[in-house]
User: Which sequence fits this backbone?
């Protein structure tokens, strides 16, 4: 059964993953895509997520047909992905699911959440989906118009409204705005528009210059450098975040900050959070592959 | 609002309903018979013959109650009646021919599920080259699915000339089947089957930095239940979350199966000719194409017309026969218990 295609894929991905991906491609077959083309694109390094296209979703959301888009499962959600926005990673899925379990907001006082560099919107949307209705109002900022558009499409797909509707039923909400959180005036802009936050989440760009040059084609050819490159040291955005939360008026008492970090950055980022003097304790969460992936700071 | 105790009581009440109904039918029929018997001496000959006819019909009803209804009530209520089922198929001896037969069997069970209005979905499946299936796990959702399918556990043997065989020689191949009970994920259990501390969860090993550095698509997971050594691997879905959920579902089923088997053993230390569910290495059925027959070795039942079993509804007859045999041996054991 497709021995030649399987061999081609195996060279690129290894035998076990090749068998799985060929099966998923087979399931996604439709009149517009042939298995040959899918394998050829994958072997050239295109992300699997784009290849397993989603014509039905495109029609549902009345997106222009030329939009290359695909999907990526994220927890129980199936999110749209579209170049050049960063495709949600399984490491992120893992820590967000854990965060959802370790913290349960109540409807009496809905929490307000800020996601910095929201990309596809995966982090706030999964939390909005998992937490009970009426317990969280999330806000995502990003510098990329592609990301903001995608995050809004995903919110629509997940049924998370941008504001409370006329219905009496409690709802979680998700809004987006364009902002550069490295900018000096970001704090003032953020504060003027929103109340204080109970949770700040972020998967900021964290790849340092040296590693950026060695990224594989499926990343560097398709994903926005602005979602990946964390400055020469890779830590530039964590410095900006720590400056932001050092301001007295940005966090509510008892707030939580959850930051995804690169494979060798956890201690450095933990130290940054500690040095703000805002937090009672900080901890580091491992990802399923044993890497120190998330820094959690609690007031 | 109803409390859990209320629900248990209601269930008990509901379950004893057939018993009460049977007794009421029996009493009513007997009373009717007594009343009709008086009319046998009626002066009117027409009335007498009508009464005689009715007596015959009523006594038929009574003997049917004695022969069928009452015995069926003696068999203890199945505690697994409401459970759905997981069916695991693994190809055995016979290589690619075994895989081909496995896909035939899978279709047979899917047709059965369709007739019984169970919802079937394939949780995991490994295709082989040439249209066969190496192994598969299928979920059958619906009340009674487990009780109907549970006696399908065991080794199924096929004797036929494979489509791929040019010399026309008959091959013997086997497919091993294990049927597991499946509880709804939302259902609360009387006791937890496992503790999360006993579970080791592993993901596909991968080197490198992870995170933003790579666009990972590996989603395979493996669960190990340390106390029993049971492992479940799941890699069918793109979503690791989904694979994890399914792996936990299969693990729960395997542990529940262990529990049910253990309870069965404990309840009955003297088990004789009961159709055995425990020994899954036993050959239970042969599908012989040359002789156009299917034979169940446990109850010695042979049916001609193999196509009606594999492509029609014939499998239902085997399932009914084996299940009846099971009920009869339970009754036999009850009688023996009384005598000793």
Assistant:
């Amino acid at each position: 059964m497709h021995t030649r295609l399987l061999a081609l894929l195996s060279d690129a991905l290894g035998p076990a993953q090749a068998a799985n991906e060929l099966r998923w491609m087979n399931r996604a077959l439709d009149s517009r895509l042939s298995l040959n083309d899918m394998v050829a694109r994958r072997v050239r390094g295109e992300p699997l997520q784009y290849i397993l296209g989603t014509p039905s979703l495109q029609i549902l959301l009345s997106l222009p047909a030329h939009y290359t888009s695909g999907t990526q499962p994220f927890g129980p959600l199936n999110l749209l992905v579209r170049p050049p926005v960063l495709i949600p990673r399984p490491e992120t899925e893992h820590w967000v699911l854990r965060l959802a379990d370790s913290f349960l907001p109540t409807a009496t006082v809905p929490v307000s959440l800020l996601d910095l560099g929201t990309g596809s919107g995966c982090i706030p949307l999964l939390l909005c989906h998992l937490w009970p209705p009426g317990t969280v109002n999330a806000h995502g900022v990003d510098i990329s118009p592609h990301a903001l558009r995608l995050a809004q499409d995903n919110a629509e797909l997940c049924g998370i409204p941008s504001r409370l509707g006329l219905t009496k039923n409690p709802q979680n909400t998700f809004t987006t705005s364009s902002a550069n959180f490295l900018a000096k005036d970001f704090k003032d802009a953020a504060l003027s528009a929103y109340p204080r936050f109970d949770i700040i989440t972020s998967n900021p760009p964290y790849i340092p210059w040296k590693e950026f040059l060695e990224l594989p084609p499926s990343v560097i050819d398709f994903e926005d450098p602005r979602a990946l490159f964390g400055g020469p040291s890779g830590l530039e955005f964590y410095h900006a975040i720590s400056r932001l939360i050092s301001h007295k008026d940005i966090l509510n008492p008892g707030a939580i900050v959850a930051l995804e970090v690169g494979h060798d950055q956890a201690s450095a980022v933990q130290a940054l959070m500690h040095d703000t003097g805002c937090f009672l304790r900080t901890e580091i969460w491992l990802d399923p592959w044993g890497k120190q992936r998330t820094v959690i700071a609690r007031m | 609002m109803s409390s859990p105790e209320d629900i248990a009581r209601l269930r008990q009440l509901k379950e004893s309903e057939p018993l009460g109904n049977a007794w009421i039918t029996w009493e009513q029929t007997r009373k009717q018979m007594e009343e009709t018997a008086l009319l046998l001496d009626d002066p009117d000959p027409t009335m007498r013959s009508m009464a005689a006819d009715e007596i015959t019909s009523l006594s038929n009803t009574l003997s049917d109650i004695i022969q069928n209804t009452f015995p069926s009530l003696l068999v203890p209520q199945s505690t697994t009646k409401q459970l759905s089922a997981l069916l695991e198929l693994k190809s055995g001896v016979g290589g690619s021919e075994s895989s081909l037969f496995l896909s035939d069997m899978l279709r047979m069970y899917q047709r059965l599920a369709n007739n019984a209005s169970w919802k079937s979905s394939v949780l995991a499946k490994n295709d082989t080259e040439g249209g066969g299936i190496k192994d598969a796990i299928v979920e059958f959702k619906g009340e009674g699915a487990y009780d109907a399918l549970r006696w399908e556990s065991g080794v199924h043997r096929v004797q036929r000339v494979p489509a791929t065989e040019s010399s026309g020689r008959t091959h013997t191949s086997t497919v091993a089947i294990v049927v597991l009970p499946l509880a709804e994920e939302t259902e609360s259990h009387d006791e937890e089957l496992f503790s999360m501390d006993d579970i080791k969860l592993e993901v596909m090993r991968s080197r490198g930095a992870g995170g933003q550095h790579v666009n990972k698509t590996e989603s395979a997971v493996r669960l190990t239940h340390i106390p029993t050594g049971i492992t479940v691997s799941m890699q069918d879905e793109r979503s690791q979350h989904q694979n994890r959920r399914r792996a936990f579902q299969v693990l729960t089923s395997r542990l529940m199966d262990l529990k049910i088997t253990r309870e069965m053993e404990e309840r009955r230390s003297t088990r004789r000719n009961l159709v055995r569910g425990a020994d899954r290495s036993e050959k239970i059925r042969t599908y012989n194409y040359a002789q156009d027959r299917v034979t169940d070795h446990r109850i010695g039942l042979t049916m001609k017309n193999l196509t009606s079993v594999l492509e029609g509804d014939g499998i239902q007859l085997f399932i009914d026969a084996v299940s009846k045999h099971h009920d009869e041996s339970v009754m036999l054991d009850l009688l023996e218990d009384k005598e000793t």
Summary: Residues 6 and 12 of chain B are 10 Å apart (CA to CA). Confidence is low (pLDDT under 50) at residues 270-278 of chain B.
